[in-house]
Design a protein that fits this description.
Elements: E1 10-13, E2 19-22, E3 25-26, H1 32-43, E4 49-50, H2 51-59, H3 67-81, H4 85-88, E5 89-92, E6 95-98, H5 106-122, H6 126-138, H7 150-178, H8 185-194, H9 199-211, H10 215-232, H11 239-249, E7 268-269, H12 281-293, E8 300-305, H13 312-323, E9 331-335, H14 348-358, H15 370-383, E10 387-393, H16 396-400, E11 410-415, E12 425-429, H17 435-446, H18 448-453, H19 455-465, H20 469-481, H21 487-495, H22 500-503, E13 505-506, E14 509-510, H23 511-520, H24 524-533, E15 540-542, H25 543-550, H26 554-566, E16 571-574, E17 577-579, H27 582-592, H28 598-622, H29 646-663, H30 673-690, H31 693-710, H32 713-729, H33 733-749, H34 753-769, H35 773-790, H36 793-809, H37 813-830, H38 834-849, H39 853-869, H40 877-890, H41 894-907, H42 914-930, H43 934-951, H44 954-970, H45 974-991
Parallel strand pairs: 7-9, 8-11, 8-12, 9-10, 10-11
Antiparallel strand pairs: 1-2, 2-3, 4-6, 5-6, 13-14, 15-17, 16-17
Helix pairs in contact: 1-2, 1-3, 1-7, 2-3, 2-7, 5-6, 6-7, 7-9, 8-9, 9-10, 9-11, 10-11, 12-13, 14-15, 17-19, 17-20, 19-21, 25-26, 25-28, 28-29, 28-30, 29-30, 30-31, 30-32, 31-32, 32-33, 32-34, 33-34, 34-35, 34-36, 35-36, 36-37, 36-38, 37-38, 38-39, 38-40, 39-40, 40-41, 40-42, 41-42, ...
Length: 1003
């Protein structure tokens, strides 16, 4: 991995394979030419690289005539591919230049560390030189471009490799004289194996082996290099290495390591480093980076904040053990007891007294007045640069007087709230452990064997602990102390939300007490807000939701939320979006579960009013002209017109979907029962765009139950109809018909002509899918007549749209074309996008039937363009691509057709609409047959047939069999072809579609 001390932004790595990351995410880059050109620019960062040199880099000695043009084209592509690429890759005079700083490019950081390391050596500062050289060598991942960069890049890579070896030799030379060479014996061996003919490295390995009591091994290394030099170069080892060999043979006393002063000169009073500590590499790198880059004019203050139990203290102690050798004044740790059960925070006066005692000042010499004690502490630290851990701080005031004023001191402060009043500090906010690190912690604690027996349960345990190190440590300790417990047993206990916090307690440590201390530290006003926000049913809370719960405006709500973030009781991943950690949510639920107070119930109702009003406005924007719920939506804290356009409306539904679903699991109390009946309708509409049919259908079932309990027949009809359409998209056609018939009968009983017509139109869709085309034709025509008579414009368009597809399937192409054009005109007037896309496909099918292929292709092009205008991807995109491929096949543009149908197939990977999936496999099958790839055609036509047969999609089933008939004939399997033909004829006759339709031409 490249150095990831930079938390955000663009980062490049060239010391090994080429790596590009933006905000922690890898940006893939393919193509040898692109990689070589970008790598050369990075190797010359800050300098102009002429185009002629870039040509030489990319093509070596056989550049094409278009090389200069291709370089410019590649630079344009790189600028588009790299975030902010226009400002990174700059055109300058005869060539190009990249502008980056050392935090963005490992090579620049590598060179800077080497330069500073060599300067430290010249200044005889061996401790600092060791650290800098080690840090530089850690950045090396291998030769540039892994040795595949061609001659130009190889030349630069060789120079860098030589610099690396020189730095390694200098580092090992320092360690050999400080008695620490044995600690790097393995990496020294590896480097010798990489460079077997390098005599200086071999000599250092020999000396290290000798000084660790391995004289025979040291002599063996000399024998190896002597043979290698003879075989490879025909020479003997140099005089220096030969002399070292002789001195090792006679055990020359001058080879013994210099005597080290074993007595510590300064106090080093740090807690022990936790053996199970894992991960946090990014944070440790960040701490080292801050220490390395800090100037000499002030102390280095690094404040680590995070929620209780996030591992702040453990991180500080690990960093201190790694850095302590740099500080001649020693390393001290003090617990300021800011959040310690039963303890008051330690004041600065008493803390200074404890610190002065730690460094050996006799008690009688420690002043009893704050001013004199403060002066003595500052005086001591002036001449003794030290590393100081101020742990568990409650406030900036508690810390400020403990910070040494002198330069050269490092102060690591850990606290739950961010100490924004601590001047000159660099802040590092600690998040939960990544899943891979949390798993490694469990492996270290419990052993690989125990985890491998229950990998699924281990993953669930990690989820329940939420990546919180304290929770993980307690859970692992419980399992370690109970070897007969399975992981599944503990997971079962943790699944009970009411018991989870009790389970995660051990002696004086526990999640519940840790969180309670944070809760106690905030004001009464914030505690009330915290409990009200805990009524939110989902994980993420935005400002408008918080305003509804708190009965205030978004400005004041943001102030409250940010205060809770500062107290580490709430997380904020992005501006305006907040979340409770899972264990904090368990804590707050325990706190409020017994508080069925009027304030809490009112807060929930306000939130649900906001959801109902805002989701209605969003769906009205996305589905113009849809049926309206006659009962006026309750006016809450939302706005009736909050959305400027469809993209914003769809984004709101996308962002709030999980919370809307979670709201439906709230207790079914009478005052919110209406909301629980109403909200599923909007989830159903959203699902029609996004394909969330399984979860939306489950919500609609709940909505039906609540509607029946309320005896709200209008809502019941809405929910029945929306559930039917969700079932239709999942291929549950008979269930859909049953729901629609119930909804139609309900509308009739209510004398609701508009709703009845909607149900009839939906039944037409369902019967069309079932291949009962005569019934579908009759129902669609009936629905359209009613819609026109009552002025229901949207239904007028949707019934015409379905009717056009039925007409095209029956071979009535001229009628289908006219019907689709009328429907399209209605949708364009309404501003309805989703239904207009479907209608364009039916129009394309009609035009294809009329052998007007170019016009048919124009209609699918228009459908693709409209798909692109929808936020995110439309659920119709696979179907549009399939129709586009079919038309291209008819036009004998076989390669384009194949590419488009393959893309359609890729788009179905997350598609839950089996009707669309069947159509895509049918298209791929026909396109493959037209190209002569009958094996692929048979595979996809068979998949289409299986889906269609299972769902009773007679039309798709018939055309899959029709295609299989042609494939069987082409492959000589005539018996199978005849069997397919007979079944096709029966299905065509049953549906009344034209017999033996024309097949696309074959290449």
């Amino acid at each position: 991995m490249i150095d990831d001390t930079v938390e955000q932004g663009l980062v490049f790595g060239v010391l090994g394979s080429l790596e590009i990351r933006y905000n922690g995410e890898t940006i893939p880059l393919t193509g040898v030419i692109k990689k070589r050109l970008l790598t050369m620019l990075l190797l010359e960062a800050g300098r102009v690289v002429p185009v002629s040199r870039l040509v030489e880099t990319a093509w070596e000695t056989c550049a094409p005539e278009t090389a200069f043009h291709q370089v410019r084209k590649t630079m344009a592509e790189l600028r588009r591919r790299i975030p902010g690429g226009e400002s990174v890759i700059v055109t300058s005079g005869p060539g190009y230049r990249v502008d980056l700083d050392e935090n963005q490019l490992d090579l620049l950081r590598y060179r800077n560390l080497l330069r500073r390391g060599h300067a430290a050596l010249e200044a005889a500062d061996n401790n600092r030189a060791t650290h800098l050289l080690r840090t530089a060598l850690r950045l090396w991942r291998g030769p540039v471009l892994d040795g595949e960069g061609g001659p130009a890049i190889e030349a630069v890579s060789s120079t860098l490799q030589e610099q690396r070896l020189d730095a390694a030799e200098r580092l090992y030379g320092i360690l050999a004289n400080t008695g620490e060479a044995a600690s790097v014996l393995d990496e020294l061996r590896s480097l010798v194996e990489e460079n077997p003919l390098r005599e200086n490295l071999r000599g250092q390995l020999m000396l290290t082996l000798y000084r660790t009591g391995q004289q025979a091994a040291a002599l063996e290394e000399f024998r190896r290099i002597r043979e290698l030099l003879a075989d490879e170069l025909g020479i003997d080892p140099g005089a220096e290495l030969s002399e070292l060999h002789e001195r090792i043979l006679r055990q020359d006393p001058s080879l013994d390591p210099p005597e080290q002063n074993s007595a510590p000169a300064t106090p080093r009073l740090l807690p022990y480093d936790i053996p199970e500590f894992v991960g946090r590499d990014r944070e440790l790198n960040r701490i080292r980076q801050v220490v390395d880059q800090t100037g000499q004019e002030a102390p280095t203050i690094l404040a680590i904040d995070g929620m209780g139990g996030s591992g702040k203290t453990a991180l500080g102690i690990r960093a201190a053990h790694q850095l302590a050798d740099r500080y001649t004044g020693g390393a001290l740790f003090i617990d300021l007891q800011g959040f310690t059960p039963g303890q008051e925070p330690l004041g600065p006066f008493h803390a200074q007294g404890d610190l002065l005692a730690m460094v050996g000042i006799p008690g009688e010499q420690i002043p009893n007045t704050p001013t004199r004690r403060d002066a003595l502490w500052q005086s001591y630290t002036q001449g003794h640069p030290m590393l100081l851990i101020l742990d568990n701080a409650a406030s900036s005031e508690q810390v400020r007087r403990l910070v040494p004023a002198a330069a050269g001191n490092l102060i690591l402060v850990t606290s739950r709230p961010r100490l924004t009043g601590l001047e000159g500090a660099t802040w590092l906010s600690l998040d939960t452990l990544p899943e891979t690190d949390a798993h490694e912690f469990l492996r270290k604690s419990l052993g690989e064997q125990r985890l491998s027996r229950e990998p699924g349960m281990a993953a669930e345990l990690l989820r329940l602990c939420g990546g919180l190190p304290l929770a993980l440590r307690i859970a692992a300790a419980r399992l370690a102390n109970r070897p007969r417990w399975t992981i599944q047993h503990l997971v079962g206990r943790l699944h009970n939300d009411e018991r989870r916090l009790n389970e995660l307690n051990s002696e004086d440590r526990g999640i519940s007490s840790t969180l309670f201390l944070s809760y106690q530290s905030i004001s009464d006003r914030l505690r009330t807000a915290f409990r009200l926000l805990g009524q939110h049913p989902g994980r993420y809370i935005d400002l408008s939701e918080a305003a509804a719960l708190l009965d205030t405006d978004t400005t004041e709500a943001e102030d409250v939320l940010e205060a809770l973030v500062d107290a580490r009781l709430l997380d904020s991943g992005e501006p305006g979006i907040y979340a409770f950690h899972d264990l904090v949510r368990s804590f707050i639920h325990r706190m409020v579960q017994s508080e069925h107070t009027p304030d809490a119930r009112k807060a929930v109702k306000r939130l649900l009013d906001f959801y109902a009003e805002t989701s209605t406005a969003a769906c009205d924007m996305l589905f113009p002209g849809r049926s309206q719920y006659n009962t006026r939506i309750r006016k809450g804290t939302g706005s009736s017109e909050p959305f400027a356009d469809k993209d914003v409306a769809l984004e709101w539904l996308d962002r709030h979907r999980e919370s809307l679903l979670a709201a439906l699991d709230l207790p079914r109390e009478r005052d919110i029962l209406w909301h629980l009946a109403y909200l599923p309708r909007e989830l159903g509409f959203h699902s029609s765009l996004r394909g969330y049919d399984s979860s939306a259908n489950h919500a609609l079932e709940k909505g039906i139950e609540a509607s029946r309990k309320l005896e709200d027949l209008e809502l019941l009809r809405f929910n029945l109809t929306n559930l039917a359409m969700g079932q239709w998209r999942l291929g549950q056609l008979k269930k859909a018909v049953s729901r629609l018939e119930e909804a139609r009968d309900l509308a009739r009983s209510m004398d609701d002509q508009c709703s009845e017509a909607e149900c009839v139109a939906r039944l037409g869709q369902a019967y069309n899918s079932l291949g009962q085309l005569g019934q579908a034709l009759r129902l669609s025509e009936e629905a359209n007549r009613t819609a026109r008579s009552i002025g229901f414009t949207r239904l007028d368009g949707s019934s015409l749209s379905t009717l056009s597809q039925v007409q095209a399937r029956l071979g009535r192409y001229s009628e289908a074309k006219e019907t689709a054009e009328n429907a399209l005109e209605i949708f364009d007037t309404l501003g309805e996008t989703q239904l207009s896309i479907s209608t364009l496909l039916y129009l394309s099918q009609a035009l294809e039937g009329l052998v007007r292929y170019s016009e048919a292709l124009e209609r699918t092009d228009e459908a693709l363009e409209r798909c692109g205008k929808l936020s995110g991807s439309s659920t119709l995109l696979p179907l549009v691509l399939a129709r586009h491929a079919d038309t291209l096949t008819r036009m004998e543009r076989f390669d384009e057709a194949a590419e488009t149908s393959t893309r359609a197939l890729a788009e179905t990977s997350n598609c839950t609409n089996d009707i669309h999936r069947a159509a895509v496999h049918l298209s791929v099958g026909y396109t493959s047959h037209a190209r002569g790839n009958d094996q692929r055609a048979e595979n996809h036509l068979s998949i289409c047939y299986e889906i269609a047969h299972r769902m009773e999609l007679r039309y798709e089933q018939a055309y899959a069999l029709y295609g299989l008939t042609k494939v069987k004939i082409a492959t000589g399997d005539l018996d199978a072809a005849e069997k397919c033909r007979a079944e096709v004829a029966a299905l065509f006759a049953l549906m009344g579609v034209p017999d033996d339709p024309p097949l696309p031409p074959r290449r």
